[in-house]
Amino acid sequence: MSDELDAETLEFAHRMFDLARDGATTELAGYVDAGLPVNLTNQKGDSLLILAAYHAHPETVRALLDRGADHSRANDRGQTALAAAVFRSNAEAVRALLDAGADPDGGNPSAVATAEFFDLPEMLTLLRTG
C-alpha cells in the first residue's frame, strides 16, 4: 500500500488549510464536526490552529480549541499557535489560547520570547497577566 495521498485528498487538505487561513470558522468547524482531524497539519507542521492564529482569526481559534485542538503543538520550526497570535498582536486569540491552557513559555521561540524580540509590550503584559 502506498503512503502517497491521491490528488483529490491533497486538494481537500489544502482547502482545509485555506479555510483556517481565511477564518472560515463555520465551514471549517463543520468539517471538524464531521470527522476532519482537528490537529491536521501541513507539510511544514502547521496545524489548523496555528494557521488560524497566525492569520488573526480569533473566532476560528476558539472554534478549533472548543473541538479539542492541541494548543501546545508546535510546527516544524518550533512555533506554537500562541507565539503566532502574539506575533500578530491579536489579543483576542492570545486570550483564547491562554484560557485554553497554552503555555507562554512553550515552543521555540516561545510566545514570551516572540513578544520580547519584536518589542510587543502589550502582548508581554497579556502573557504575564493572562
From TrEMBL:
> ANK repeats located where?
44-76, 77-109
A Pfam family assignment: Ank_2
Signal sequence span per UniProt?
A: none
**UniProt keyword annotation of Acyltransferase present:** no
Q: Does the keyword Transcription apply?
A: no
Xref: InterPro entries: Ankyrin_rpt, Ankyrin_rpt-contain_sf
Q: Which domain of life is it from?
A: Bacteria
Query: What does the UniProt keyword field contain?
Result: ANK repeat, Repeat
PANTHER family per record: ANKYRIN REPEAT DOMAIN-CONTAINING PROTEIN 39-RELATED
What name appears for this protein in its UniProt entry? Ankyrin repeat-containing protein
